[in-house]
Amino acid sequence: MSHRLKNLSRGKGYAPGSLKSRTETIPGGNMPLQVITYDPDKITEKEIQISTTIEQLREYRDNKSITWINLNDVRCVDWVEKIGEAFDIHPLILEDIVNANQRPKNEEMDNYLFIAVKMLTYNEPQEFIDAEQVSFILTGSCVLTFQEKPGDVFEPVRERIRTGKGRIRRMGSDYLAYSLLDMLIDNYFLVMEKIGDRVEDLDEDLLTSIDNKHLKMLHHLKREIIFMRKSVWPLRETIGDLYRGEKAIIGKETSVYFGDLYDHTIQVIDTVEGLRDMVSGMLDTYLSQLGNKMNEVMKVLTIIATIFIPLTFIAGIYGMNFEFMPELKWKSGYFVTLSLMLIIALGMVLYFRRKKWL
Amino acid sequence: MSHRLKNLSRGKGYAPGSLKSRTETIPGGNMPLQVITYDPDKITEKEIQISTTIEQLREYRDNKSITWINLNDVRCVDWVEKIGEAFDIHPLILEDIVNANQRPKNEEMDNYLFIAVKMLTYNEPQEFIDAEQVSFILTGSCVLTFQEKPGDVFEPVRERIRTGKGRIRRMGSDYLAYSLLDMLIDNYFLVMEKIGDRVEDLDEDLLTSIDNKHLKMLHHLKREIIFMRKSVWPLRETIGDLYRGEKAIIGKETSVYFGDLYDHTIQVIDTVEGLRDMVSGMLDTYLSQLGNKMNEVMKVLTIIATIFIPLTFIAGIYGMNFEFMPELKWKSGYFVTLSLMLIIALGMVLYFRRKKWL
Amino acid sequence: MSHRLKNLSRGKGYAPGSLKSRTETIPGGNMPLQVITYDPDKITEKEIQISTTIEQLREYRDNKSITWINLNDVRCVDWVEKIGEAFDIHPLILEDIVNANQRPKNEEMDNYLFIAVKMLTYNEPQEFIDAEQVSFILTGSCVLTFQEKPGDVFEPVRERIRTGKGRIRRMGSDYLAYSLLDMLIDNYFLVMEKIGDRVEDLDEDLLTSIDNKHLKMLHHLKREIIFMRKSVWPLRETIGDLYRGEKAIIGKETSVYFGDLYDHTIQVIDTVEGLRDMVSGMLDTYLSQLGNKMNEVMKVLTIIATIFIPLTFIAGIYGMNFEFMPELKWKSGYFVTLSLMLIIALGMVLYFRRKKWL
Amino acid sequence: MSHRLKNLSRGKGYAPGSLKSRTETIPGGNMPLQVITYDPDKITEKEIQISTTIEQLREYRDNKSITWINLNDVRCVDWVEKIGEAFDIHPLILEDIVNANQRPKNEEMDNYLFIAVKMLTYNEPQEFIDAEQVSFILTGSCVLTFQEKPGDVFEPVRERIRTGKGRIRRMGSDYLAYSLLDMLIDNYFLVMEKIGDRVEDLDEDLLTSIDNKHLKMLHHLKREIIFMRKSVWPLRETIGDLYRGEKAIIGKETSVYFGDLYDHTIQVIDTVEGLRDMVSGMLDTYLSQLGNKMNEVMKVLTIIATIFIPLTFIAGIYGMNFEFMPELKWKSGYFVTLSLMLIIALGMVLYFRRKKWL
Amino acid sequence: MSHRLKNLSRGKGYAPGSLKSRTETIPGGNMPLQVITYDPDKITEKEIQISTTIEQLREYRDNKSITWINLNDVRCVDWVEKIGEAFDIHPLILEDIVNANQRPKNEEMDNYLFIAVKMLTYNEPQEFIDAEQVSFILTGSCVLTFQEKPGDVFEPVRERIRTGKGRIRRMGSDYLAYSLLDMLIDNYFLVMEKIGDRVEDLDEDLLTSIDNKHLKMLHHLKREIIFMRKSVWPLRETIGDLYRGEKAIIGKETSVYFGDLYDHTIQVIDTVEGLRDMVSGMLDTYLSQLGNKMNEVMKVLTIIATIFIPLTFIAGIYGMNFEFMPELKWKSGYFVTLSLMLIIALGMVLYFRRKKWL
């Protein structure tokens, strides 16, 4: 959880809007910008270097063709600043892009739309959910995406653009933004299926045996689900806003698609809530199983102790060394005593039977 | 639960609106379409094959008579596509029909209304609730229904259409849609009665004995009820919307009936919530019963141990082999000791009486 | 609880609005209709038979005098149908009257107002709350009431009409409806006082002793309170609607009285919630008392066992039959051993004192 | 709690608005009315008797000076009726004044404003919160206050009026009403401080010892806080309404003061919620402490039993009377056995050390 | 917690708006006022004494330059009164400034805006959160800040004003107020990081060992987080109001910054809720670990007791002193008995193995 709480404060001495405040930075030279430009007829894909001038960047902005500019690592503050200048982005928005701890949100500015969402991936070996902020800037003809680190889930969209499959090449930048967001949210389902598998495995394990390891796993899963929930709930508002709100930049035709995206978001929330309920129920099961087990242990102890303690007492009596103990002299004393013990033992067993302990 | 979490993601590489993405498909040739056409005077029932042309389908659409077209299995993507073309259905709606994991919802398009709800049936032998998505497309004179698999609860409506009982033959397609939805929701009550019977049986069992089997049953029922709850809550909004919202396609006269349907939905929700409260209360009962039982076990152990341990100690004393132990020589030593033991035992019993443990 | 879950579905094969679907019926001939007609000057009370014509019933409707028509048993479907025809009641409303499982609600139709509420009475011997639906139809000059079974709480209103006490004879049918509803809701307080008495008795009992019987009583009371709560919450909306909503049939002067009724409803809800909190708190008390008691039992066991087990061990040592055990030969061996045992016992007692177990 | 549930129903046979229904009454002759009349220049304070005529009362109403009329005991139904007639109060309002079980609320009538709130005082010896309804009628120049029983918290306001301190003498009747309400709500803080002291004392006690007495105190405090909460929440709406709502009778200048009063109300709610959280947390602490204690008790028992039971068994073996037991003949048998016992005991102690039980 | 409940009531006998009511006061002479005046070109910093006249103070108010006036200790009622007079502040606002127990809130008056928020700092040695109220009065060109005690988190803002870094020197008083609030809320993150560190440390400790000390720490942290939560939630409304509400005094350009501040506030709330969930989960862990541990203790006891009690009983039998006990005479009696004991012990061990207790 630790990594999820750090670096929230801007840091002493930095003014609002200064990009160098919270993150360690890396030089822009190491990280080219990925640019895809397309229209229904043709498509160009290239990588541009930090030496590109602001005017060259502005050409993409003013171009009729749809352009998707992707930065793989927001620690390249040089790039963020250059893009910010080229596209006239407000410094606070740039700060939100760089300091990647934002709640999912959208903000409409004069001539662009800012959207920040989380890209979730499931880190299989370590069994936790990895969250990375992806920021979108949507202008009339461009979509700018900023990721926290290289590696994304957008490859199928790139493929669809390249092959011209579906309607993506014929539609505007708003449809491109939709396609990318759709891919992100579709990936949420994959993460949830994996978490769901873990939950179901554990659920079956709990029916046969309970131990500390299961409890730890349960708490771990509960935390992952709570973390997921926190990422997903604000998404509802963010996407709902894109769909309902009259954002100038989202066309009527694309708006239907955002409606579909909103439905998916609601479904994600439903699924997360379902998982949460399931894990809560499992914690209840765990506790009542624990109670059952304790009860069983106690019963074994009580049965054994309750049968043998009185018998041992009787043996103790005839183990006393008094000189005058008439029974000791009886020929059948020993066998009478043994029989008495047997009768007491049987009586106890019958009593426990009646109590349904046996 | 497993089957309820799978197949939520669209799958990599498929564009939004493509029907072949998430489901395995079956050829349309295996599955005829059921068509019932009626007006107050006459009724025709037939099955049409996949070879039917789009123009023939459009005749139903443009006909004055009311037509109900039913597809029994949405995996027949061929049919869905053909109907989609004939009735000008938006690709995203077709995708929602085919990928039958939708939340109950309605969507009003230019000239038709899309409604997706769950048909619930209770799988008696396996004791779980079976949910199947039924999608409705409602146009001016047609109702199209798409089911996930053959077998439905609509037979009484078919019967009413055939016999002309009630007002169904005299009213429009909106009343037909209402009748089908009403039948679906009426069936919810049957499912709940069955679940309710299980809950009550278990409730009585819990009063006499508690064991692990009951706990498992309890958790199973709780899950079924939570699952039901998730299906039912969004229905409230969906149906409420049909009743209040000024849907162009639902006439004023039929709107009263949708109001009645809305009342039923609220009642379903109330009943589900009542069952949920009952099951939660039973879990509390279970835990407090477990505590009671443990207490009783402990008391038995404590009473037996507390009475006999001191007595055994006394017997132990006179079992010691010291050469000089004056009491051992006394003639009445044995009987005095026995009496002492009796007095101690009686004292203990009185003490437990006063503590109300006996 | 059983009787509260049954008969919710309309039953297969019945069209919406058909009265004979869900209830067993009784012939109208067995059940006369009670009719009270009054104006400030005079009052007539009579019982009319099923042979009365629809025209005769309509006279009441068109009369200037205020008329209260009461049907004691809605299973007399003949009467419901006849009244429905005479007063032009919508078939769905008639269905709601006959199938007496409605949520409290009101519905404004063109020229009448339909109100369905629950009449609660406390079944003292069996200790549960009995709920009966009372449906009101309020027209300009008539109040029609439909009960589920004979026996009601309206006698004081009849008395007030007969004696002309209060302003009831001078006011319209809306005031009559208010008076009846007021009487119903006033009766809720009586039911709650009785439940409250049970709760308080139990609360005192729990302070002195806890056993399974108390737990069952607690769960029984909790269910009754939850049942009450479910009846009462929708009332808030129903009555609030009558008070705020501009219902054409409720005059401005009477509206103040409905405001007062609304306040009473809120107070009923507050009281029910108070009882619920109290019962929840008692369940907590029960569980913590159980924990306390278990703790006490354990302590007794531990003290006795911990004192005597070491002593018995010492006695066991000197009970061994080794030939060479020097202490056994000592003259004072026995008394030294006894003293040692005493010292150990006292040390244990001091230890428990310090631990505050004694 | 008992006294808080009684007398909620109006009682059979009484019409709405009749004052003699729910309360036992006392004759008005025993209880004079306290009247304070003031303007910036002068102040008169007197007590008037039940013989005062309605016309004399109306003079106060029509006077330009501000008049505060206080009735100390609403069981003086004679006074309530007379005042009601003189000031034209609606019978339902009079009923609300007399039947002092109202939820805090305000009601605006044609020419006066009715406010009902609770005056809370802390009954120190019996440690419970005493609630008394105070009803306000606010007209253009008069404030009428009705208390349930003699004794109030208004003395400082009387003093401010007498001395002319603050702006009270220069402002209207709305400011007088504000001053009285402010005094009432300020007193809530005093009650809460006292409850808070009890809570904190208990909280400290719980850290050192837990027993049944503490549990009872905890539940008692929880109930008092819940009771307080129920009195305080509706106040929010009541006061908020006075502040925001455009009540004709509350001037713009005074409205700021009602805003301040509203802030205090919110603060009262915050404090009550804080206390509630604290008490809930303490119940959790209690239960986990109980668990800790049980664990400790069990550990002591287990350690003692586990060490001595095996040793006693060994002693038992050599206490057997078999004729042929070679060890008994050994010279060192006794010492070897004692050493063996010591080794076993030490082994056990080491085992418990490793388990961190010692 | 104690210090957080005290001094909420205004105190008997004080009129609303009187500053000397709730706090002990200190003379203004001991506490100079810190004044910073700046415009884009120059900056003056000075301290002024209580001898400053009201006219001199009003010069700051009417000046074009931006002035920040800071009072370090609101117990200097002399200063508060003088400033109140110079800037025409409403007496109730002054009371809110002096009685520093306000909920975070803002109030817009005719020509100034009042904002009260909490400055939180983490008292590291005593491990609790220190809260201090900071009140802001924002006029066209001045920001007045009132602190409860010397020492604040505003130093970086002073530094930015002095160095002219960022846009602070070029913007108005609204931007200055924003910068100060931003610094305050940024500090919340630091407090939360520290609390978060404690929570994580404890979380790790709980995995290896649980004892009373951990429980106390857990409850302490829970309280601190609840306290934090209570400070943070009303902030949402307060800041949201500044951002959305059309406050005349906040310019359009600065409004964007308040939007950013609002986002941070939401993030603070998210983080606090996350911590709360985590601590709640840890309490669950604690309780289930406790159950696990108890189970383990019980198992050890049961295993030892169940193995040795029957063996001891057998030894007891052959320790009896009956004259006629044939086994005692057998040559191999002793060894047969020992073998029998061994077999019983092994049987028990196998039984526990099968039960998975070993």
Give the strand order, joined by hyphens, for the main sheet of chain A.
2-1-3-7-6-5-4
Oligomer state equals: homopentamer
Q: What does the average pLDDT of chain A come to?
A: 86
The chain pair forming the largest interface, with residue counts per chain, is: A-E, 68 and 64 residues
Q: How does the helix and strand content of chain A classify structurally?
A: alpha+beta
- Give the number of DSSP strands of chain A: 7
SSE succession of chain A? EEHEHHEEEEHHHHHH
Strand content of chain A: 5-15%
Our measurement of the CA-to-CA distance between the termini of chain A, rounded to an integer number of angstroms, reads 47 Å
Q: Which term fits the overall shape of chain A?
A: rod-shaped
Helix content of chain A: 55-70%
Q: Whole-number radius of gyration of chain A? A: 34 Å
Main pleated-sheet profile of chain A: 7 strands, mixed
Detailed description of the structure:
The structure is a homopentamer of 358-residue chains. Chain A is α+β, with helices and mostly antiparallel strands and 358 residues long. Helix content of chain A is 55%, strand content 14%. Chain A has helices at residues 54-62, 77-86, 91-98, 155-163, 173-208, 212-244, 252-317, 326-329, 333-354; strands at 33-38, 43-48, 66-71, 105-108, 113-123, 128-138, 142-147. In chain A, strand 5 (113-123) and strand 6 form a beta hairpin. In chain A, helix 5 (173-208) runs antiparallel to helix 6 and helix 5 runs parallel beside helix 7. Chain A is rod-shaped and about 120 Å long. Chain A starts with 32 loop residues before the first strand and ends with a helix. Chains A and E meet through helix 3, helix 6, helix 7, helix 8 and helix 9 of A and helix 4, helix 5 and helix 7 of E.
